[in-house]
Amino acid sequence: MSEFHFKQFSIQQDRCAMKIGTDGVLLGAWTPIKNNPFSILDIGAGTGIIALMLAQRSNAEQIDALEIDEEAYEQSVDNFENSPWSDRLFCFHAGLDEFVEEPEDEYDLIVSNPPFYTDDYKSENEQRDLARFADAMPFEDLIEAAALLLSENGVFSVIIPFKEEENFLALAAAYELYPLKITHVKGTPTTEIKRSLLAFSRKETIDFTVDELIIETSRHIYTPEYIGLTKAFYQKM
Asked: What Gene Ontology molecular function terms does this protein carry (predicted)?
Protein backbone atom coordinates (compact mmCIF):
# COMPACT_ATOMS: atom_id res chain seq x y z
CA MET A 1 0.00 0.00 0.00
CA SER A 2 1.70 3.19 -1.13
CA GLU A 3 -0.57 5.53 0.85
CA PHE A 4 -1.58 5.09 4.46
CA HIS A 5 -4.36 7.20 5.95
CA PHE A 6 -4.40 8.12 9.62
CA LYS A 7 -7.13 10.16 11.31
CA GLN A 8 -5.41 13.51 10.92
CA PHE A 9 -2.77 12.94 8.21
CA SER A 10 -1.76 10.64 5.36
CA ILE A 11 1.58 9.09 4.52
CA GLN A 12 3.01 8.21 1.13
CA GLN A 13 5.52 5.39 1.47
CA ASP A 14 6.21 4.08 -2.05
CA ARG A 15 9.78 5.50 -2.05
CA CYS A 16 10.77 4.33 1.44
CA ALA A 17 12.59 1.08 2.09
CA MET A 18 11.00 0.68 5.50
CA LYS A 19 7.22 0.88 5.32
CA ILE A 20 4.98 1.96 8.17
CA GLY A 21 5.01 -0.70 10.83
CA THR A 22 3.87 -1.24 14.39
CA ASP A 23 7.26 -0.16 15.83
CA GLY A 24 7.08 3.39 14.49
CA VAL A 25 3.43 3.82 15.46
CA LEU A 26 4.12 2.47 18.97
CA LEU A 27 7.03 4.85 19.48
CA GLY A 28 5.09 7.85 18.17
CA ALA A 29 2.12 7.10 20.42
CA TRP A 30 4.03 5.96 23.55
CA THR A 31 6.83 8.55 23.76
CA PRO A 32 6.39 10.63 26.95
CA ILE A 33 5.66 14.33 26.31
CA LYS A 34 4.96 15.37 29.91
CA ASN A 35 7.92 17.75 29.69
CA ASN A 36 5.88 19.68 27.07
CA PRO A 37 8.69 19.76 24.47
CA PHE A 38 9.26 22.94 22.47
CA SER A 39 11.72 21.22 20.11
CA ILE A 40 11.76 17.61 18.86
CA LEU A 41 14.29 15.65 16.78
CA ASP A 42 13.45 12.40 14.98
CA ILE A 43 16.66 10.55 14.05
CA GLY A 44 16.18 8.35 10.97
CA ALA A 45 12.83 9.72 9.85
CA GLY A 46 11.89 7.20 7.16
CA THR A 47 8.39 8.17 6.03
CA GLY A 48 8.21 10.85 8.74
CA ILE A 49 5.53 8.93 10.65
CA ILE A 50 6.96 9.48 14.16
CA ALA A 51 7.56 13.22 13.66
CA LEU A 52 4.01 13.58 12.31
CA MET A 53 2.50 11.69 15.24
CA LEU A 54 4.41 13.91 17.66
CA ALA A 55 3.25 17.01 15.78
CA GLN A 56 -0.32 15.79 16.34
CA ARG A 57 0.26 14.96 20.03
CA SER A 58 2.33 17.94 21.15
CA ASN A 59 2.54 21.72 20.92
CA ALA A 60 6.20 21.59 19.90
CA GLU A 61 7.00 24.48 17.59
CA GLN A 62 10.17 23.01 16.11
CA ILE A 63 10.08 19.41 14.89
CA ASP A 64 13.20 18.40 13.00
CA ALA A 65 13.83 15.07 11.34
CA LEU A 66 17.02 13.53 10.02
CA GLU A 67 17.16 11.08 7.12
CA ILE A 68 20.26 9.88 5.25
CA ASP A 69 18.55 8.00 2.41
CA GLU A 70 17.67 10.38 -0.44
CA GLU A 71 14.42 8.69 -1.49
CA ALA A 72 13.16 8.45 2.09
CA TYR A 73 14.24 12.06 2.75
CA GLU A 74 12.25 13.35 -0.25
CA GLN A 75 9.23 11.30 0.74
CA SER A 76 9.42 12.59 4.31
CA VAL A 77 9.54 16.19 3.05
CA ASP A 78 6.43 15.56 0.91
CA ASN A 79 4.59 13.95 3.83
CA PHE A 80 5.48 16.91 6.07
CA GLU A 81 4.38 19.46 3.47
CA ASN A 82 1.05 17.70 2.93
CA SER A 83 0.27 17.52 6.66
CA PRO A 84 -1.67 20.04 8.80
CA TRP A 85 1.58 20.89 10.64
CA SER A 86 3.88 21.70 7.69
CA ASP A 87 5.00 24.96 9.33
CA ARG A 88 6.43 23.06 12.33
CA LEU A 89 8.14 20.17 10.52
CA PHE A 90 11.53 20.20 8.81
CA CYS A 91 13.63 17.35 7.43
CA PHE A 92 17.43 17.41 7.04
CA HIS A 93 19.07 15.24 4.40
CA ALA A 94 22.10 14.19 6.42
CA GLY A 95 23.66 11.39 8.41
CA LEU A 96 23.85 11.54 12.18
CA ASP A 97 27.62 12.05 12.12
CA GLU A 98 27.42 15.21 9.98
CA PHE A 99 24.42 16.51 11.92
CA VAL A 100 26.26 16.37 15.27
CA GLU A 101 29.45 17.95 13.92
CA GLU A 102 27.97 21.41 14.21
CA PRO A 103 24.94 21.15 16.48
CA GLU A 104 22.94 24.36 16.40
CA ASP A 105 20.13 23.40 18.72
CA GLU A 106 19.31 21.39 21.78
CA TYR A 107 16.14 19.33 21.74
CA ASP A 108 13.58 18.71 24.49
CA LEU A 109 12.65 15.39 22.91
CA ILE A 110 14.76 13.09 20.75
CA VAL A 111 13.15 9.99 19.25
CA SER A 112 14.50 7.18 17.10
CA ASN A 113 13.26 3.91 15.69
CA PRO A 114 16.81 2.80 14.83
CA PRO A 115 17.78 0.15 12.30
CA PHE A 116 18.54 -3.03 14.22
CA TYR A 117 18.71 -6.24 12.23
CA THR A 118 22.29 -6.87 13.34
CA ASP A 119 22.21 -10.65 13.13
CA ASP A 120 20.06 -10.97 10.05
CA TYR A 121 21.32 -11.82 6.60
CA LYS A 122 21.51 -8.95 4.14
CA SER A 123 19.12 -8.86 1.19
CA GLU A 124 19.84 -7.81 -2.37
CA ASN A 125 18.19 -4.44 -1.72
CA GLU A 126 20.85 -2.03 -0.47
CA GLN A 127 18.36 0.71 0.38
CA ARG A 128 16.31 -1.63 2.54
CA ASP A 129 19.45 -2.98 4.19
CA LEU A 130 20.56 0.54 5.07
CA ALA A 131 17.22 1.18 6.72
CA ARG A 132 17.30 -2.11 8.62
CA PHE A 133 20.87 -2.67 9.73
CA ALA A 134 22.55 -1.33 12.82
CA ASP A 135 25.85 -0.82 11.02
CA ALA A 136 24.20 2.18 9.32
CA MET A 137 23.71 3.74 12.77
CA PRO A 138 25.22 1.86 15.72
CA PHE A 139 23.43 2.24 19.04
CA GLU A 140 26.45 3.91 20.61
CA ASP A 141 26.49 6.63 17.93
CA LEU A 142 22.80 7.23 18.52
CA ILE A 143 23.19 7.44 22.32
CA GLU A 144 26.24 9.69 22.03
CA ALA A 145 24.30 12.04 19.72
CA ALA A 146 21.33 12.09 22.10
CA ALA A 147 23.61 12.93 25.02
CA LEU A 148 25.07 15.80 23.00
CA LEU A 149 21.80 17.22 21.65
CA LEU A 150 19.38 16.69 24.55
CA SER A 151 18.32 19.72 26.60
CA GLU A 152 18.75 19.64 30.37
CA ASN A 153 15.20 18.42 31.04
CA GLY A 154 14.89 16.58 27.74
CA VAL A 155 13.64 13.06 27.03
CA PHE A 156 15.28 10.53 24.69
CA SER A 157 12.93 7.79 23.48
CA VAL A 158 13.59 4.66 21.37
CA ILE A 159 12.15 1.29 20.38
CA ILE A 160 14.62 -1.61 20.15
CA PRO A 161 14.58 -5.43 20.23
CA PHE A 162 14.09 -6.69 23.79
CA LYS A 163 17.28 -8.76 23.51
CA GLU A 164 19.27 -5.53 23.04
CA GLU A 165 17.78 -3.80 26.10
CA GLU A 166 20.48 -4.62 28.65
CA ASN A 167 23.25 -3.51 26.30
CA PHE A 168 21.39 -0.31 25.38
CA LEU A 169 20.77 0.62 29.04
CA ALA A 170 24.46 0.09 29.85
CA LEU A 171 25.57 2.25 26.91
CA ALA A 172 23.10 4.97 27.89
CA ALA A 173 24.30 4.95 31.51
CA ALA A 174 27.87 5.48 30.26
CA TYR A 175 26.61 8.74 28.69
CA GLU A 176 24.68 9.64 31.87
CA LEU A 177 21.27 8.97 30.35
CA TYR A 178 18.98 7.13 32.74
CA PRO A 179 15.70 5.24 32.21
CA LEU A 180 12.56 7.18 32.96
CA LYS A 181 10.07 4.59 31.69
CA ILE A 182 10.30 1.13 30.10
CA THR A 183 7.52 -0.78 28.36
CA HIS A 184 7.99 -4.35 27.15
CA VAL A 185 5.94 -5.18 24.06
CA LYS A 186 4.44 -8.59 23.30
CA GLY A 187 2.43 -9.50 20.20
CA THR A 188 0.01 -11.70 22.15
CA PRO A 189 -0.28 -12.84 25.81
CA THR A 190 1.54 -16.11 25.09
CA THR A 191 4.40 -14.86 22.88
CA GLU A 192 7.75 -13.72 24.21
CA ILE A 193 8.66 -10.06 24.69
CA LYS A 194 9.70 -8.75 21.29
CA ARG A 195 10.40 -5.04 21.74
CA SER A 196 11.46 -2.58 24.43
CA LEU A 197 10.18 0.99 24.47
CA LEU A 198 12.71 3.02 26.44
CA ALA A 199 12.60 6.65 27.58
CA PHE A 200 15.64 8.32 29.16
CA SER A 201 16.45 11.57 30.90
CA ARG A 202 19.58 13.16 32.36
CA LYS A 203 18.25 12.72 35.90
CA GLU A 204 18.48 9.35 37.57
CA THR A 205 15.04 8.07 38.59
CA ILE A 206 15.14 5.41 41.27
CA ASP A 207 11.62 3.96 40.96
CA PHE A 208 10.88 4.39 37.26
CA THR A 209 7.94 2.56 35.68
CA VAL A 210 8.45 -0.80 33.97
CA ASP A 211 5.30 -2.21 32.41
CA GLU A 212 4.09 -4.49 29.63
CA LEU A 213 1.99 -3.85 26.55
CA ILE A 214 0.25 -6.69 24.71
CA ILE A 215 -0.89 -5.77 21.20
CA GLU A 216 -3.60 -8.34 20.49
CA THR A 217 -5.35 -11.19 22.29
CA SER A 218 -5.84 -13.00 18.95
CA ARG A 219 -5.48 -12.05 15.29
CA HIS A 220 -6.79 -8.45 14.85
CA ILE A 221 -8.46 -8.50 18.28
CA TYR A 222 -6.56 -5.65 19.90
CA THR A 223 -6.15 -5.18 23.63
CA PRO A 224 -7.79 -2.16 25.33
CA GLU A 225 -4.28 -0.86 26.16
CA TYR A 226 -3.15 -0.95 22.53
CA ILE A 227 -6.41 0.64 21.36
CA GLY A 228 -6.05 3.33 24.02
CA LEU A 229 -2.52 4.09 22.83
CA THR A 230 -3.25 4.23 19.10
CA LYS A 231 -6.89 5.28 18.69
CA ALA A 232 -6.00 8.95 18.14
CA PHE A 233 -4.21 7.81 14.97
CA TYR A 234 -5.65 4.64 13.42
CA GLN A 235 -8.94 5.20 11.60
CA LYS A 236 -10.40 1.84 12.62
CA MET A 237 -9.57 1.98 16.33
From this structure: methyltransferase activity
